[in-house]
Design goal:
Elements (H helix, E strand, L loop, with lengths): L4 E3 L28 E2 L11 E5 L9 H18 L10 E5 L11 E5 L14 E10 L4 E10 L8 E3 L23 E3 H12 L2 E2 L25 E3 L10 H16 L1
Parallel strand pairs: 3-4, 3-5, 5-7, 8-9
Antiparallel strand pairs: 1-11, 2-10, 6-7
The structure holds zinc ion (ZN).
Zinc ion binds next to helix 2.
């Protein structure tokens, strides 16, 4: 079988919590659930979360549209935030230099060649590096999140942005893996997925036995937080019921914290 799905890692690079571990039992390994969450959340005092988008770090051909793709990805979560207001309800973006994996108190979104930092290796599309400090009854409190996109997708494939996509159908997972197209990945889809990690959500789906080898996976393949992104698909741009349920759990924890 051709392997065209690439794992999107949420690398855990976590500062040990200084408070007691949470008393509340939460899901954080995949078990056929609609969303998967370890209870990590941003404290209310840090919301909305602002990311510096390092446009200059993007590959030249992608630079002009990168900010638009990032805004669209953030908007998916902002629109689903239960106490949404106008603008950035939970994720705000500003343009500026960003670091990846460095504890500098700033959340960054940048393009970083595979270098092993924070688990960002040559086999992934992107990595989100999380830091936490302390916890409350829901789980660990997030203090910083850095997202890095891999400028060199695996197997010599390319990245594409809105306006350059050549979609075969709207939601391609019906024929996934898609035999008609294997050579590109959608930046906005990947960013939407990584923002989900940055808000505290984990993967759904069985990473040991990917769809379609395991057909019980099929209810989850359309979710933004599914563990793998198919080549030539854009379905991760749109949140599904499980993603939204997970976001609402995060929102509840943040509002109560
Ligand atoms: Zn992921």
């Amino acid at each position: 079988m051709r392997r065209i799905a690439i794992l999107l890692f949420a690398a855990a690079f976590v500062v040990p919590a200084t408070a007691a571990e949470p008393a509340r039992a939460v899901q954080c390994t995949y078990n056929g659930v609609l969303f998967n969450w370890c209870g990590e959340h941003w404290p209310a005092s840090k919301l909305p979360v602002t990311f510096r988008v390092d446009v200059a770090s993007a590959p030249t051909a992608l630079r002009a549209q990168f900010m638009d793709a990032a805004r669209a990805a953030a908007q998916a979560w902002n629109q689903a935030w239960p106490t949404k207001s106008t603008g950035c309800a939970v994720i705000c973006l500003i343009e500026g230099p960003a670091t990846f994996g460095t504890a500098d108190g700033k959340n960054g979104l940048s393009w970083v060649p595979a270098n092993g930092a924070c688990g960002h290796s040559s086999g992934v599309l992107a990595t989100t590096c999380m830091r936490t400090s302390g916890s409350d009854s829901f789980g660990k409190l997030i203090t910083e999140a850095d997202i890095a996109l891999n400028p060199s997708p695996p197997s010599g494939r390319t990245w594409r942005m809105a306006g350059t996509l050549q979609l075969i159908t709207g939601e391609l997972y019906a024929a996934w893996p898609n035999a008609l197209c294997t050579d590109w990945y959608d930046v906005q889809s990947t960013l939407t997925h990584e923002f989900g990690h940055a808000l505290g959500l984990e993967h759904v789906g069985n990473e040991a036995t990917p769809y379609p080898n395991d057909l019980t996976e099929s209810p989850y393949t359309l979710q933004t937080m599914y563990w793998a992104q198919g080549a030539c698909t854009t379905n991760m741009r749109t949140l599904d019921a499980g993603d939204i349920a997970g976001l609402h759990a995060v929102a509840l924890a943040s509002s109560a914290g």
